[in-house]
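Predict structure. Chain length: 219.
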Amino acid sequence: MQKLLQTEWLGRVSYEAGQALQERIVGEKAMDPGQPDRLLLLEHDSVYTTGRSQSLSGSEFGGLPHPVLQINRGGKVTYHGPGQLVGYPLLDLRRRGQDLHKHLRYLEEGLLELSRRVGVEAHTREGLTGVWVGERKLASIGVGVRKWISMHGFAINVNGDLAGFEHITPCGLEGVRMTSLEREGAAGLSVEEAARLAAEVFCELPGFAVGPLEKRAEG
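Prediction complete.
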């Protein structure tokens, strides 16, 4: 079976390095439709990012404990850091009906299934993009598209400290509480283990063929 999706665990990388890698792959795919679709799975150093529609001049960005970057995705400010699994699906949406709404729903569907596989019953909420457990937000989604090649993607909290979220209004949602798979009962799960499960889950979604998770070569 032809691999329509290649998945790859990158480990811990800076946000800037992850952004540069996305830019390169998207450029290659836009020029050559024969390039495979890819899902990059990784963990970032602590950073805040905000979408293209939110100005960095606002008072909410003053005195934050980590760097702030404005990037070409939708959505408002969020936090990335250790203990969080980030997924960047770099997909040719020209082969998927050029349907961004469907792309977002696939991301939510995959995150719901990932959560179920580790014993956490998550759900979506009408009118909001992302994944929740009760009233607590477990995963955020923000995407960008260039020449109908998708960029950015999802971030699901696996374990560790969520204090980085306390300095912002996550995704512009007042009063939201963030949670993690660990806090919801998935004790002992590492980010790399969550990445391997995510690779299995997303390769099983409609429109994707199965491909193994490849570990990025050192150097």
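Summary: The chain has a mean pLDDT of 86.
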